[in-house]
Amino acid sequence: MSPMAQAIEVYKTDTDRVEFSGRLAAFAVIQDGAHDEIYNGGSRVRLIHEHQFEQGWSSIIRAEWGFDP
């Protein structure tokens, strides 16, 4: 199972935006009709900060971590 990533806008002004997002992904192995184990399938969490400067310039900082739920 791997649902779409979900995002939450934590903070937003005219010049700044902070977003928290990620996904929980897992898969199971079944052999000979017996349930073996549930494994991490690439779960991620991400934090994004974007700032709009004058004259059309902008910056973006992204940090992403993988984790094993």
- Main sheet specs: 4 strands, antiparallel
What portion of residues belong to β-strands? over 45%
* SS field, number of helical segments: 0
Overall strand count: 6
What do the pLDDT scores average to?
87
Taken in chain order, the helices and strands follow as EEEEEE
Our count of domains comes out at 1
Structural class: mainly beta
List the helices and strands and how they pair.
Blueprint: E1 6-12, E2 16-23, E3 26-31, E4 34-40, E5 44-52, E6 58-66
Antiparallel strand pairs: 1-2, 2-5, 3-4, 5-6
Report on the structure:
The protein is mainly β and 69 residues long. It contains no helices and six strands. It has a four-stranded antiparallel β-sheet, with no helix packed on it. Strands 3-4 form a two-stranded antiparallel ribbon. The protein is rod-shaped, with a radius of gyration of 18 Å. It starts with 5 loop residues before the first strand and ends with a strand. The mean pLDDT is 87.
